[in-house]
Amino acid sequence: MAVQINPSILSADFSRLADEARAVEGADWLHVDVMDNHFVPNLTLGVPVVESLAKATDTPLDCHLMIEDPDRWAPQYAEAGAGSVTFHAEAAHAPVRLARELRRMGARASMALKPATPIEPFEDLLPELDMLLIMTVEPGFGGQAFLDIMLPKIRRTRELISRHNLELWLQVDGGVSAATIERCAEAGADVFVAGSAVYGTDDPAAAVRSLRTQAEKATSGAPWACAH
Ligand SMILES: O=C(CO)[C@@H](O)[C@H](O)COP(=O)(O)O
């Protein structure tokens, strides 16, 4: 499997979350956006919903925490059943300690960068992580336009991953669609979050398959596009 497609539940119908989660079985992970109305100006869901979702679907949960003080809260999401927990670099007080704690609990540890946060200051931290998330919109809402200006950051991050020979997944999130996924893949991303491009269609599972085909074509031949 060279690429991964993670539908974002933020664009789903929240009154039918279990059904919406099952509608994308075949996706690699279900992306769950946790927002606290402080780190971002929006409020979504928390630990009890993640716990219920983990029981409702066989698809592993990729929890993206857009919250203040992830050092305090992130371990609770690992405990609730998330297989991958992403905290924001801008919010974490002790990212290395937090990543180690998440890994110790058996979750994949991931860190996200907002559009204005550069990757370079975090180069030495990368071996502590299983995934790096580059936001391709300002976090907080689904359905925003993809920020093309993030493509150089994706390329620079892929170069760092290759230079240090790391097994680090590179995720992009925000405005990822049939119109933009190939540019992200060519720049070096291998994990793609898509909300409206999946749940905004009549057939979410087919949308996942189609995005996967596009991303696979765009990465075929890339030296880093090997099995996860
Ligand atoms: O984290 C976020 C938004 O902050 C994302 O996960 C969105 O849910 C992606 O939605 P689309 O841009 O794909 O519609």
Folded structure, characterized:
Catalyzes the reversible epimerization of D-ribulose 5-phosphate to D-xylulose 5-phosphate. Belongs to the ribulose-phosphate 3-epimerase family. The protein has 228 residues and is an alpha/beta fold. Helices cover 33% and strands 18% of the residues. It has helices spanning 17-22, 47-56, 70-79, 95-104, 151-163, 181-187, 196-199, 204-219; strands at 4-7, 30-35, 61-66, 84-88, 108-113, 131-135, 169-173, 191-194. It has an 8-stranded parallel sheet. Helix 6 packs parallel to helix 8 (204-219). The protein is globular and about 45 Å long. It starts with a strand and ends in a 9-residue tail after the last helix. The model has no long low-confidence stretch (mean pLDDT 96).
Throw out a few tags for this protein:
single chain, 228 residues, alpha/beta, TIM Barrel, 8-stranded parallel β-sheet, 8 strands, binds 5-O-phosphono-D-xylulose
Q: State the fourth-level CATH superfamily.
A: Aldolase class I
Compressed to H and E, one letter per element, the order equals EHEHEHEHEEHEHEHH
Distance between the termini: 6 Å
CATH topology category name: TIM Barrel
Largest sheet: 8 strands, parallel
How big is the Rg? 16 Å
- How many separate helices? 8
- Class per helix and strand makeup: alpha/beta
GO molecular function: D-ribulose-phosphate 3-epimerase activity; metal ion binding
Protein name: Ribulose-phosphate 3-epimerase
Catalytic activity: D-ribulose 5-phosphate = D-xylulose 5-phosphate
Cofactor: Mn(2+); Fe(2+); Co(2+); Zn(2+)
